[in-house]
Amino acid sequence: MSGINPAEWDARIKLAACYRMVAKLGMDDLIYNHISLRVPGHDDQFLINPYGLLFDEITASSLVKIDTRGNKLDDTPHAVNVAAFVIHAAIHASNHDAACVLHTHSDASVAVSGQEKGLLPLSQFAMRFYDRQAFHDYEGVAIDLDEQTRLVRDLGAHKVMLMRNHGILTVGRTPGEAFMLLYYFERAARIQLQMQAAAAAGAELVMPPHEVCERAARQFWELQGDILVPGEREWPALMRQLDRTDPSYRN
């Protein structure tokens, strides 16, 4: 694409890679769901998927640039999902530090979104989110602009929000951070469902005490020891994997 500066093109490549990784791990939903990334240097503009393309079809040049009012800023024939605009514009227009907003209907996350307490501290994967998950009650398909205020209110300063009976939303300073938060949450949710199935068959669940769960959560969020921001170590490796298997996302 002509006329795109290097910073935006780099952002497009990383966002396209995020779409491909979500598809690669089976956490996409055909042509639905969406991931957005602020355009570098423009707080009121973001990139998002063209409505109608599968996640494994997304490329850097196919991404659509829109502003927080819903205006397309690219010469493209592609439309943008209305629900995608409602959800993503709300977060990008808020004061949240999220550059990347990721929303999926990944199976295990949807399953725990319908449980009163959401994700439980039943595994080390889950400890990162102990008392650090937001909840947004289901209001129907997110196509009404007045839901935006409640989405922003419910997310607050959190980086992960369960949209009840609907899906999950993660936010990050980079696509790598948003993706890895989704990955770790989904792993934790799957483990929770397996443990709950075992408990239904008679097994007794062991849940660490509050003090231990809180200590583990602080270790993750305060980057204690050699812990880094999610994606800082993992994301370059994932992009190298994509480059080996299907580098077409860079087009």
Instruction: Let me know the number of strands.
Output: 7
Q: What kind of sheet is the major sheet?
A: 7 strands, mixed
Query: Runs with pLDDT <50, length 5+?
Result: none
Q: What fraction of the residues are assigned to beta strands by DSSP?
A: 5-15%
Using the alpha-carbon principal axes, give the shape.
globular
Helix fraction, binned, reads 40-55%
- The arrangement of helices and strands along the chain is HEEEHEHHEHEEHHH
Cα distance spanning the termini: 9 Å
Family: Belongs to the aldolase class II family.
InterPro entries: Aldolase-II_Adducin_sf, Aldolase_II/adducin_N, Aldolase_II/adducin_N_sf
Domain Class II aldolase/adducin N-terminal: 13-193
Protein name: Class II aldolase/adducin family protein
Question: How would you describe this protein?
Answer:
This protein has 251 residues and is α+β, with helices and mostly antiparallel strands. It is built from eight helices and seven strands. The protein has helices spanning 6-24, 82-93, 107-113, 124-127, 147-155, 175-200, 210-221, 234-245, and strands at residues 34-39, 42-48, 64-67, 100-104, 134-136, 160-163, 167-172. It has a seven-stranded mixed β-sheet, sandwiched between helices. Strand 5 (134-136), helix 5 and strand 6 form a beta-alpha-beta unit. Helix 3 packs across helix 6 (175-200). The relative contact order is 0.15. The mean pLDDT is 94.
Structural features:
globular; 14% strand; 251 residues; Aldolase_II/adducin_N; single chain; alpha+beta; Class II aldolase/adducin family protein; Aldolase_II/adducin_N_sf; Aldolase-II_Adducin_sf; seven-stranded mixed sheet; 8 helices
